Amino acid sequence: MTLSVRDLPAPVASHRGRLPGDPGRPLTTPGGASRAARRGMALLLLGWFALPFVPLLVWAFADRWAFPSVLPQEWGVGGLSSAFAQGGAAAFGRSLLLGLVVAAIATPLGAILGRALALGWAPAPRLVTAVVFAPVLLPPFAAALGINVLLLRAHVPALAGLVLVLVAMALPYTTFSMRAAYAAHDLGYEEEARTLGASRARVLWQVHVPLLAPALARSAFLAFLVGWSDYIITVMVGGGQIVTLPLITASAASGVGNDALVAALSLAAVIPPVLLLLVLVRGDRRMTP
Questions:
Q1: What phi and psi values does residue 255 have, to the nearest 5 degrees?
Q2: DSSP state, 10?
Q3: pTM (2 decimals)?
Q4: Which of 27, 175, 193, 274 meets the CB 3.0–4.6 Å disulfide criterion with 113?
Q5: Sequence ranges of the domains in the chain
Q6: Are 222 and 174 in contact (CB under 8 A)?
Q7: Phi/psi zone of residue 109: left (φ > 0), alpha (ψ -120 to 50 degrees), beta?
Q8: Residues 152-162: tens digit of each pLDDT
Q9: CATH numeric code, 55-62+71-287
Q10: Within 10 Å of residue 140's Cβ, how many Cβ atoms?
C-alpha cells in the first residue's frame, strides 16, 4: 500500500479565513476585478522583461544590419554558425552540467541547514547564519581570489574546486528559501505518518518531500542559476580549463564587428533559465489548491 499525503488526516482543523455559514468560501478569494488586474499586471511585466530580448532575436538572424535601416538588410544564420564554430555547443553543455551539479548538491544541503535553523536545531544559529551567508556579503572577486590560493596549495582539481566554490555561493540562496519553507511547514503530517507505522525513509519520500516539493524546486532553480551564469569564479578557479557559455559570451562581446554571434550566444544563455522558470511556475499552479 502506497502512503500519500492525501491519505493523512489534517493535524489541525482550521476555519480561519472562511465566511460564517459558508465553509467552502475563504475570505481571501479574489474577485473578478482583482484577478483581471493581476493578469494585466503580469502581462505588463512579461512584456517589460521580454522587450529587451527582441533586438537580440533579430540580431541573431541578421547577416547585415546597418544604420539607418529599421530591419536587417540580409537575414541568415551566420550568427548561429559562428556560435557553433566558436565552441558554443560544447560550452552550453558544460554550463548546463555545471548548473545541474551545483543544484543537486546545494539544494539538499540548503534544506538541511534551513530545517535546522527554522526549527531551532542548529547550535549557535547566529554564527551558522553568518557563515552560510558570508559568500553573499563578500565581494565575489576578493572571495574567489583568496579561495583560489587555498585550492591551488591543496592541489584540488580545477573542476572539483569550481563546483565546491559555486556550491558555497549557492548555499545562502537555498538555505534562505528552505528556511522560509520550513518555518511554515507543519510537522504534524510527518507525526501522523509515523503514528500509522511508516518508517523514517517512507515518511521522508512519501510525505516530507511531496509537501516541500515547491520549495525544493525553487531552491534548485536558484542554485542552478548560480552555476549556470557564473563568470568570475569560473575564470579564477577554473583557470581557463573549464570554458562555459558565459566565458565565450563575454569573450565575443569584448570583440567588435560580430553582433550576430553575441546575440546568438546571449539567447542561448537565456533559454534554459526561462524554460526552467516556466516549468517552475506551472508546477506551482498545479500544486496550489
A1: -85, 180
A2: P
A3: 0.78
A4: 175
A5: 55-62+71-287
A6: yes
A7: alpha
A8: 888 888 889 99
A9: 1.10.3720.10
A10: 16
